[in-house]
Amino acid sequence: LILAHRVRRTRRKTRTQKNVMASTSALAGVFNNLAVSAGARATKTNVVAKKAFSARAGAGKRNLTIVNVATGPRGPLKKKSESSEEDKIESATEGKGLFTNVDPSVRRIIPDAKGRVVVKVVYVVLESQYQSSLSAAVNNLNATNPKVCFEVSGYLLEELRNPKNLAMLKADVETANVFIGSLIFIEELAEKVVEIVTPLRDQLDACLIFPSMPAVMRLNKLGTFSMAQLGQSKSAIASFMKKKKESGGFEEGMLKLVRTLPKVLKYLPSDKAQDARNFMNSLQYWLGGSSENLENFLLMISKAYVPALANYDMEIAEPVTFPDIGIWHPTAPTMYEDLKEYLNWYDTRKDMKFAKDAPVVGIVLQRSHLVTGDEGHYSGMVAELEARGAKVVPVFAGGLDFSIPVERFFFDPITKNAFVDTVLSLTGFALVGGPARQDHPKAIDSLKKLNVPYMVTVPLSFQTTEEWVDSTLGLHPVQVALQVALPELDGGLEPIIFSGRDSKTGKSHTIQDRAAQIAGRALKWAALRKKKNAQKKLAITVFSFPPDKGNVGTAAYLNVFGSIYRVLQGLKKEGYDIGDCPGNEEELINSVLNDKEAKFASPDLNVEYRMPVKEYEKLCLYQEDLHENWGPPPGNLNSDGQNMLIYGKKFGNIFIGVQPTFGYEGDPMRLLFSKSASPHHGFAAYYTYLEKIFNADAVLHFGTHGSLEFMPGKQVGMSGDCYPDHLIGNIPNIYYYAANNPSEATIAKRRSYANTISYLTPPAENAGLYKGLKELKELIASYQGLKDSGRGPSIVNSIMTTAMTCNLDKDVKEIDINIDAKDMDSDTRNLIVGKVYGKLMEIESRLLPCGLHIVGCPPSAEEAVATLVNIAGIDREDEEITALPQILAQVIGRDIESIYRANDAGILDEVQLLQDITEASRVMVGEFVSKASDPSGRLAANALGGLGAMFGGANLALPWGDALKGSKFENVDVAACRKLFGYLRFCLEQIVTDNELGALTEALEGQYVLPGPGGDPIRNPKVLPTGKNIHALDPQAIPTSAAIASAKVVVDRLIERQRVEQNGVYPESIALVLWGTDNIKTYGESLAQVMLMVGVRPMPDALGRVNKLELISLEELGRPRIDVVVNCSGVFRDLFVNQMNLLDRAVKLAAEQDEPLEMNFVRKHALEQAEELGLSLREAATRIFSNASGSYSSNVNLAVENSSWNDESQLQDMYLNRKSFAFNSDSPGSGMETKSAIFKSALSKVDVTFQNLDSSEISLTDVSHYFDSDPTKLVASVRKDGKMPSSFIADTTTANAQVRSLSETVRLDSRTKLLNPKWYEGMLASGYEGTREIQKRLNNTLGWSATSGQVDNWVYEDANDVYMKDPEMQKRLMESNPNSFRKMVANFLEANGRGYWETSEENIDRLRKLYMEVEDKIEGVNN
Length: 1423
Known about the structure:
alpha/beta; 7-stranded mixed sheet
């Protein structure tokens, strides 16, 4: 983390006075405000310095620091009773629950003064590489200097979370002469440093702060030199502090400024110039990092600023500097600044011989570790790679732009092609930039030119090795944000921990088993570049969930076998051996399943390999660990009683295998366990087969998603004991993942080391209207033409009757067929018709994905229209684009927001106006898209060139043609529309630029796959084109200000609706769910909702990272603070630990406000719980819950999907057991701690349950996650009054955000999907997999009945009419997927049996008969 820029002395004396004075003028503000100044007389880099440096590095190589901390099967675990030297120096009681418990006194050095002047130095640094070098410098000075000695106390920033350590720091600073701080970039800890040092700053002889947060930088003081005005004036410093897009940002900006300053120093008053030079020299000494440099640094500062040493003569050497960038090797005689020179040495080494075609690994290092002599972990990694036969080119950079050495040293100087086969970064940082700012586009440009796999491993900076091993969280959350999330934006892969640090010395060491894992995986990626395609073996892995023969090939939105067939054909063209591949998709399904109608558990599923138990025990090194959960092998899963069965089929060098499932889905008792079980033997055998027997060069996990990445283990930063790490072994993991699911894709990246390649979700269409709904629309059209005639009332009667038939009376309360419309006044009639019309338009315009996507198959022109209309419907402030509905509304002098509100109120004319605007939008976009389609109706990339002629001057053709001619919108703002349609053109280009198959080929050939964001293509079209390596976002960037504004709208509407429905009474507590993907797509809207409910505003720090809080006053809030119970999904927990910390702090901040209890329900409930449970107020205010670390979901979904539950109380027990783990910001290192009593108590006070829908692609019945996290009936069971809470869903899928009841949302979902011919016919067109999708929606509907009771009887009745009554439909379902059809029949019978659906005996008899028929067919029984 330490910056290490060499600051060169400017020797040029030929500059004109004019140029120098110009520089002086430009920087005058700096010195006028005493903001910063520095000067230096640095010695030039020389061979002697480099050789001395390299000799020290070579010594490090000969005494490699390699530690086997037993993180995996490669070494034995330390017994609990044993304690190391490091254990002994860790505090046993203080700081419990923090990430590190190391006692800072291990860094304390107290000299034997012997009459010398004692200078006390206190330092605070981000990480520990300076500890050893600084300690060596101090010990040498104390042993050899006759005039001065040094007392030193050192602290790592993370240790200041411990109140005891903070008190020690304060006591040390109170008696210190010199304070030093470096890289203090964690806001909450920076504030503590400022709080301690500020009142003591004047009494310090010197205070030196190297690049840190601005507030800390302002503490700098060397004589007259100060930075007190830093960032607050119009100085040069203030300007560079605000440059957000500059490569390296704040740190690089500061160093560039420092380089400019020497030339102006001679024009300053002598005292200021000298102090500035001292600061400049100090920076150089510090960045030089060696113990020699640090000795002279301490002497210089002491001589200049400690009064007792003012008259002493001391010999102080100039700073010794080293190359800014270069090539380093632990056994090299020097450092190299030229690749040819390095290779001349490397290729003539006597100690190592390499094969002619040996893979070459480019390694990226931090210079600061080299100059401080803390390079043992680098030496260990180099040794591991070379021992496996790889050549290495280890490069370093002194600044934060590692793209410079990458471009200089990783290309062949002759061919200009990539010289390296894989890049392995050991910095843990983004390629360009440090903790403050990054330049991802520049990094991506460099990496794309190089075009090799890019792995970014992580050193442990804030924890000791033992602390990481013992942690269920794994890697420290700050490191996850800085050193995992940010490199992912560059396309970085495989965030595996490679080094730890010693708690006593602070020195870094290689973690041997992790280094072995990294080296093995790096060389497997490199091998993909060298091996011929015809020889490569690829294991395509499909999923079957729930475990049923009808579910083989499960994946969100994807026609898996259709896609695999296209992939195989594509691979064949690239020269891969696909053997005797079937001729079509249907034959491919049959060959893998063998018999589509067989049970999943039967041998009729094709068995590719039978693994004897002895072979399994020999090859699977961790199989004994599985005995605790599953007993000895072979077990009864994926087994014939003697062998482990590997299901699938080989075609040449391609194996299509079926991943086993978790194994405990059907076991109610296992589902109740609070923590997830290990994988079973069959699961372990599958991956053992891929790596050790099939010898896969790569595995392709096909679709969203499997079970591998959700197996137990640390959240981030896997150890060798974590099951995902065990299972994937050394196989490169390529993973097709839905573009709209970046959160779970990120889990796959971090926990199973996947290169995630995005695929498109099916094209969206408007749901349309059908049957009675269509008839209703026609009746409304008649009413609008005849409402003032005598026929008006009779038409309203028909509308009400038809609406009742369509069950719309549940949504439009004003409908009452017992009242004749002729007895109503015209306003009432118009209101009823307006509200019915509004509901119809809501249904008709709802977007739904139709059919299933096939990899590499772009949408048709018609299919793109609905998506583009919705893209056009959103204001985009960043691009200065106005939404099309707003542009059209402005033509008639209106604002679209007022039209939305009037539409929601059911004002008939306003409903019609909104429909007119919607229709005009569709016609405009339809006309635009039609110009870009080829004769087949597909979007043609070449047609887009012709569209270019439509964008430019006012006289050119309009992109939307004559769409508005003759309409009330004809006089539209052409300039605004052109800008919008220019953006739509860009979006259209992204849609047709498909690279899903291309990205797979690139990955399999060991190339760099371009990274790109995941999310909703409508909200963020930059998700397109697909075929990118999906990443999430910087977790510290959310919630954004726009997300907070959107969240406020939803929170206000939610609270107001509940208040109105409850006769003016506010809800006291709301239980809600936070999802990972939703918060990525919306940039933290639901996260902001929680904070706004409790009346706290999230705020950015000085570097724009959201990690501060501001209490909203009750006056500004205008309502009580609402209590919350937050259920974070396991994925949210893994991705957003820092935000969970923020949430917990927000709730506790609200609870601690001394306010009237009727205005602060957080405090009211916390006080009650504190008394009830014997807790402190802060403990009682615990509200942020999730699963145990390494576990996911409540298992309610598994129970429902497998019908493995007896009654609802069993489901509620699952939820309570698995979701009662709390996060505590007061002990963040503890991970998730079980807090069942407070969880149950908090739920008992809930008045409202609440969830968000943010994307048209995923709604309540599309996935099981939503009902799995719904506590509605659970709340009723734990409330003292037994009252069912209100339940609401916020729908922000369109610009007109809605808050609907859960039952309203289920009805809307059912009408637009399960009961909608457009949707189910689209699914049936996908055959086997489409039938499974239909069954899944029915199963999820059943899940909502189980958890909430909010599914109306008519939903099941109408679904039965559609799917079970019609003999032709029965036949289609039976023929396409008999197993899924059987499950559908069982779902209906189960809904009836559990009391969720009342129906006729005729329907039940038909279902029973159908079940017997399909059962017989599946079993092969002929009647």
